[in-house]
Amino acid sequence: MWTAIEYACIGTLSGPVLARWASAAVDEPNRGTRSWVTLFCATTAVVLFFVAARWLNSPALPAFGWFAMTGVVLCVIDLDHHRLPHAVVGTAFGGGLVLLGVVAAVVDQQAENFLRALVIAAAVFAVCLTTSLLAPGQLGFGDVTLFGTVSLFVGWVGWQAVYVELVVTVFLGGLAAVAMIAIGRTRFAFGPVILGGALVALLQP
């Protein structure tokens, strides 16, 4: 039987691949330095360990593991470049769609979870897109698509998890905004805040 430690080892081994993927996504082929790879190995191992520890007995664990690994890539890219490449966000969403769809197809009583996840992802995307159009500059399109993507995974868990995701995201966003103002900066990466909110929602008991 797989354990959370074994999943953490998978995260460590995937670090070099994820680092190369991130480098290619931002068109910096020379970014594959030892420190860059070490960052991905360590971060992915830690995140995947906690995700696996929470969902070890769930058939949806592969999907949540995919969220963990792609989330690390997006988080690091946004922190370093203030970008959320659509190719990476799309891959995160597509992988989750396939993996959760397989679970819904082969495991009894999981179709409702999949349908709810699709509805929530579409609803969150629509609300965020409307907000972006009505209040330009508040949300970038990368943030909008990321909100929809993480809501697919969180929506699988349930409406309460979505509520937790949104509350934690707003809270973390407020803290980040205050911190940036305190150090004299007005721009900060919102992607890690969105991903952090989703991760907290997925790890709740």
UniProtKB/TrEMBL annotation:
<keyword id="KW-0472">Membrane</keyword>
<feature type="domain" description="Prepilin type IV endopeptidase peptidase">
    <location>
        <begin position="70"/>
        <end position="177"/>
    </location>
</feature>
<feature type="transmembrane region" description="Helical">
    <location>
        <begin position="34"/>
        <end position="53"/>
    </location>
</feature>
<protein>
    <submittedName>
        <fullName>Prepilin peptidase</fullName>
        <ecNumber>3.4.23.43</ecNumber>
    </submittedName>
</protein>
<keyword id="KW-1133">Transmembrane helix</keyword>
<dbReference type="InterPro" id="IPR050882">
    <property type="entry name" value="Prepilin_peptidase/N-MTase"/>
</dbReference>
<comment type="similarity">
    <text>Belongs to the peptidase A24 family.</text>
</comment>
<feature type="transmembrane region" description="Helical">
    <location>
        <begin position="156"/>
        <end position="181"/>
    </location>
</feature>
<feature type="transmembrane region" description="Helical">
    <location>
        <begin position="85"/>
        <end position="107"/>
    </location>
</feature>
<feature type="transmembrane region" description="Helical">
    <location>
        <begin position="114"/>
        <end position="136"/>
    </location>
</feature>
<dbReference type="InterPro" id="IPR000045">
    <property type="entry name" value="Prepilin_IV_endopep_pep"/>
</dbReference>
<keyword id="KW-0812">Transmembrane</keyword>
<keyword id="KW-0378">Hydrolase</keyword>
<dbReference type="GO" id="GO:0004190">
    <property type="term" value="F:aspartic-type endopeptidase activity"/>
</dbReference>
<dbReference type="Pfam" id="PF01478">
    <property type="entry name" value="Peptidase_A24"/>
</dbReference>
